[in-house]
């Protein structure tokens, strides 16, 4: 029997509260981190990023290392999330993608036809050295604090590629799915392999957990998700199966998809702020959960924020283990001191 591949550094974080919770063993203190904790809510991030485009920053190991560590130092969170973006593998594969401040990923030539997809499928990940170098530096610096690697799920990436940028309801992507199912399948297969390779590279370089972001999956019906999306997310995740790292799957507005999102083969499901965690736990019993403070509460009075967080912690007890997080990302206007105070407050509960 061959043993699964393992990175020697994974052992260093095996007893970290985050990893124990991801494995379903409820630690004494609830671990906490914030989606988008590395970024514009931090003045030290804005200083470092001055004059550097987002995607250039993501491919600079020095910047990635420093930006990833900033929120860990400042807030004392239980995990670092790798500073990158879901479109970085597309960029590394040579797709003409950019991240426009205040807007998000923009694709110069949207993918709409069989010929567009065929051309895309010629592309492979060119060089992941900037990514693996940054992960190696980070895991060395972080010691027993886990680094979470991540990737965008095939559907969310397809939505950007087909729409050409952010969209309200992913109408063009959902149309392609039904109008040209073979073209859709080819596009999603290519994306699944790209995403899987990106995750695999991070884990093999030392990341202790891997999160798949299917941010826009909530716009799909359960039937469409199961038929046209879930098989490709499962295909991506197979590349990190057996590597001894827990996996997390998150989407926004996915209350109706939680069971299907778990079934693609992950250990933990991330829940947005719309679905109370006890309701999520009833939908997927026995599954550790991550979430789901409403980001809007970060700008509300402290008493309102802590009362809401206490409710989230109480509802999270319905799951075998709970990692506290936001129901989506940190808004750029957030006062970072609120996050620092909240981490300390959660650790005292
Ligand atoms: O702390 C972290 O979470 C680490 C890094 C991270 C970023 N993007 C950095 C970033 C992560 C995990 C992401 C994932 C990501 N990127 C997702 C999935 C999570 C989610 O929010 O649903 C998505 C959909 C994207 C695509 C994307 N990239 C959007 C929608 C935006 C915002 C555009 C804007 O300017 O408002 C980005 C840009 C981005 N990604 C920034 C950061 C720090 C801001 C860029 C900047 O600082 O100029």
From TrEMBL:
<comment type="similarity">
    <text>Belongs to the uroporphyrinogen decarboxylase family.</text>
</comment>
<comment type="function">
    <text>Catalyzes the decarboxylation of four acetate groups of uroporphyrinogen-III to yield coproporphyrinogen-III.</text>
</comment>
<keyword id="KW-0963">Cytoplasm</keyword>
<feature type="binding site">
    <location>
        <position position="85"/>
    </location>
    <ligand>
        <name>substrate</name>
    </ligand>
</feature>
<feature type="domain" description="Uroporphyrinogen decarboxylase (URO-D)">
    <location>
        <begin position="148"/>
        <end position="164"/>
    </location>
</feature>
<protein>
    <recommendedName>
        <fullName>Uroporphyrinogen decarboxylase</fullName>
        <ecNumber>4.1.1.37</ecNumber>
    </recommendedName>
</protein>
<comment type="pathway">
    <text>Porphyrin-containing compound metabolism; protoporphyrin-IX biosynthesis; coproporphyrinogen-III from 5-aminolevulinate: step 4/4.</text>
</comment>
<dbReference type="InterPro" id="IPR000257">
    <property type="entry name" value="Uroporphyrinogen_deCOase"/>
</dbReference>
<feature type="site" description="Transition state stabilizer">
    <location>
        <position position="85"/>
    </location>
</feature>
<dbReference type="GO" id="GO:0006782">
    <property type="term" value="P:protoporphyrinogen IX biosynthetic process"/>
</dbReference>
<dbReference type="InterPro" id="IPR038071">
    <property type="entry name" value="UROD/MetE-like_sf"/>
</dbReference>
<comment type="subunit">
    <text>Homodimer.</text>
</comment>
<keyword id="KW-0456">Lyase</keyword>
<feature type="binding site">
    <location>
        <position position="160"/>
    </location>
    <ligand>
        <name>substrate</name>
    </ligand>
</feature>
<feature type="binding site">
    <location>
        <position position="215"/>
    </location>
    <ligand>
        <name>substrate</name>
    </ligand>
</feature>
<dbReference type="InterPro" id="IPR006361">
    <property type="entry name" value="Uroporphyrinogen_deCO2ase_HemE"/>
</dbReference>
<dbReference type="GO" id="GO:0004853">
    <property type="term" value="F:uroporphyrinogen decarboxylase activity"/>
</dbReference>
<feature type="binding site">
    <location>
        <begin position="36"/>
        <end position="40"/>
    </location>
    <ligand>
        <name>substrate</name>
    </ligand>
</feature>
<dbReference type="GO" id="GO:0005829">
    <property type="term" value="C:cytosol"/>
</dbReference>
<feature type="binding site">
    <location>
        <position position="328"/>
    </location>
    <ligand>
        <name>substrate</name>
    </ligand>
</feature>
<dbReference type="Pfam" id="PF01208">
    <property type="entry name" value="URO-D"/>
</dbReference>
<keyword id="KW-0210">Decarboxylase</keyword>
<keyword id="KW-0627">Porphyrin biosynthesis</keyword>
């Amino acid at each position: 029997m061959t043993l699964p591949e393992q990175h020697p550094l994974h052992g260093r974080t095996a007893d970290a509260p985050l990893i124990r919770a991801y494995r379903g063993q409820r630690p004494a203190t609830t671990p906490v981190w914030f989606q988008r904790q590395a970024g514009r809510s931090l003045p030290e991030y804005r200083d470092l990023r001055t004059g550097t485009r987002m995607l250039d920053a993501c491919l600079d190991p020095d910047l990635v290392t420093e930006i990833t560590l900033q929120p860990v130092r400042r807030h004392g969170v239980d995990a670092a999330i790798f500073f990158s973006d879901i479109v970085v593998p597309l960029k590394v594969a040579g797709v003409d993608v950019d991240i426009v401040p205040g807007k998000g990923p923009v694709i110069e030539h949207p993918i709409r036809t069989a010929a567009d997809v065929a051309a895309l499928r010629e592309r492979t990940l060119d060089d992941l050295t900037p990514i693996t170098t940054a992960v190696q530096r980070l895991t060395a610096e972080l010691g027993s604090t886990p680094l979470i690697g991540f990737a965008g799920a095939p559907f969310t990436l397809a939505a950007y590629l087909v729409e050409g940028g952010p969209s309200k309801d992913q109408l063009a992507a959902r149309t392609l799915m039904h109008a040209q199912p073979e073209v859709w399948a080819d596009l999603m297969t290519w994306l699944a392999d790209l995403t899987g390779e990106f995750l695999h590279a991070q884990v093999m370089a030392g990341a202790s957990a891997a999160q798949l972001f299917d941010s826009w999956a909530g716009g799909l019906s359960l039937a469409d998700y199961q038929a046209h999306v879930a098989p490709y997310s499962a295909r991506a995740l197979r590349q990190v199966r057996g590597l001894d790292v827990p996996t997390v799957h998150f989407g926004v507005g996915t209350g109706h998809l939680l069971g299907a999102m778990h079934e693609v083969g992950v250990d933990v499901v991330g829940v947005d702020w719309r679905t109370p965690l006890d309701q999520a736990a009833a939908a997927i019993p026995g599954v550790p959960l991550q979430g789901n403070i409403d980001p809007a509460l970060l700008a509300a009075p402290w008493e309102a924020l802590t009362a809401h967080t206490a409710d989230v912690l109480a509802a999270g007890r319905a799951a075998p283990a709970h990692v506290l997080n936001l129901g989506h990302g940190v808004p750029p206007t957030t006062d970072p001191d609120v996050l620092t105070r909240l981490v300390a407050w959660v650790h005292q509960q």
